[in-house]
Amino acid sequence: MTPDPHTTPHPAAPVPTPVGEGLKAAFRTHPAGVAIITAQGPDGPVGLTASSVSSVAVDPAAIVFSVTRATGSAGAILGAETFVVHLIDDEHSALAQSFAVSGSERFTPEQGWTTLPTGEPHLAEARVALRCRAIQTVPVGSSTVVIAEVLEVLTGRPARPLVYIDRRFHALSHDTAL
């Protein structure tokens, strides 16, 4: 079997250190935007919630995010040729929660999912969806950092962004968001 050129096996997960615990505490109170990342995996659609998405460059258009393991939905996304990063709004906080918990109901028509002509699951009501392909992955401890080229920007409807802070989802106020 030929190894996937986009992924590298992780070294054993390190034991948490006081600095690592301090870093977790620091970022627990640092707000981050919320995204749902989806792909068509070998066994069907897969997805996860991420709060680590950020833009990297505009030429070429690129983003970065991380996943905390290379198994399950994260592993399928890492192995997919393309995936979609949905920047979601406050009306989708329940959906973000369901994609953050293993075994939750996902990809139902009631949730608003469709399939793009290229095969990826798509939430048309997301504020923005970015169809991407990984151009580089970097293992860091028990996580993988993904640098992805944005192939297509799919605009949805204007809405208030959803942010993650102190282990909960929050909507920005109307004045703050627009």
Automatic annotation (TrEMBL):
<dbReference type="InterPro" id="IPR012349">
    <property type="entry name" value="Split_barrel_FMN-bd"/>
</dbReference>
<protein>
    <submittedName>
        <fullName>Flavin reductase family protein</fullName>
    </submittedName>
</protein>
<dbReference type="Pfam" id="PF01613">
    <property type="entry name" value="Flavin_Reduct"/>
</dbReference>
<dbReference type="InterPro" id="IPR002563">
    <property type="entry name" value="Flavin_Rdtase-like_dom"/>
</dbReference>
<dbReference type="GO" id="GO:0042602">
    <property type="term" value="F:riboflavin reductase (NADPH) activity"/>
</dbReference>
<dbReference type="GO" id="GO:0006208">
    <property type="term" value="P:pyrimidine nucleobase catabolic process"/>
</dbReference>
<feature type="region of interest" description="Disordered">
    <location>
        <begin position="1"/>
        <end position="20"/>
    </location>
</feature>
<feature type="compositionally biased region" description="Pro residues">
    <location>
        <begin position="1"/>
        <end position="17"/>
    </location>
</feature>
<keyword id="KW-0560">Oxidoreductase</keyword>
<dbReference type="GO" id="GO:0010181">
    <property type="term" value="F:FMN binding"/>
</dbReference>
<feature type="domain" description="Flavin reductase like">
    <location>
        <begin position="27"/>
        <end position="171"/>
    </location>
</feature>
<dbReference type="InterPro" id="IPR050268">
    <property type="entry name" value="NADH-dep_flavin_reductase"/>
</dbReference>
